[in-house]
Amino acid sequence: MTAIVESTATPTTTSMPRIGDPAPVFTAQTTQGEIHFPGDYAGRWVILFSHPADFTPVCTTEFMTFASMEDDFAAYNTALVGLSVDGLYSHIAWLRTIKDRIEFRDMKDVEVTFPLIDDVSMEVATKYGMIMPGEDSTKAVRAVFVIDPRGVVRTIVYYPLSLGRNFDELLRVVKALQTADAFDVATPADWRPGDRVIVPPAGSCGTAKERMEGAEEGVECVDWFFCTKELPADVVESTIRTGS
Fold first, then answer.
1. Which one of 59, 205, 221, 227 is the catalytic residue?
2. 205 annotated active-site
């Protein structure tokens, strides 16, 4: 039997923005100069993410992957901004080491060109609830905030220190959010561009009945609350992909 350990310590409350909240505002020094967030990114989607520490192996694989996929995110009008509670000189030295010495899978000579925030004071990490004392009181967990062009938090994902992120999923999230906004639909489990999308429930009994009877062209219903329609991948891509 596994014993349940009861702590007598006073819990530390860490505030964090919620989905639908405006992204907390901050100004910070980064490896790419000073940024004013989220104002500098108005009109763009942003992935703001934290990592526990420079010169650590899991974080290194993540930064190499993000850097290698930067153009993939940029194709969907999405910028990347990283953060840890290390200082600027540590960031610069670590990123130089990644480029000069580290090989991982098929990646080498990887240059990180997106900004990495100097947050020694933990001010930004605290604003975004990236410090989880139960995990570590002096390091940020692997937090991901997807923020839309209006500066609103749309998705939040947290990973523990030991678990590297799934980057294909993060790109899928961006595509799904943009598709939902552009076409006023929802996306089902494991959705990818080209899969059927979910049509929001009808607002009246009459409309629901019409849907069930096939009155809405292209909409298929298996019950009044579960209706889908085709949305071809080329239509999705031409709408949400930058420059399409």
1. 59
2. no
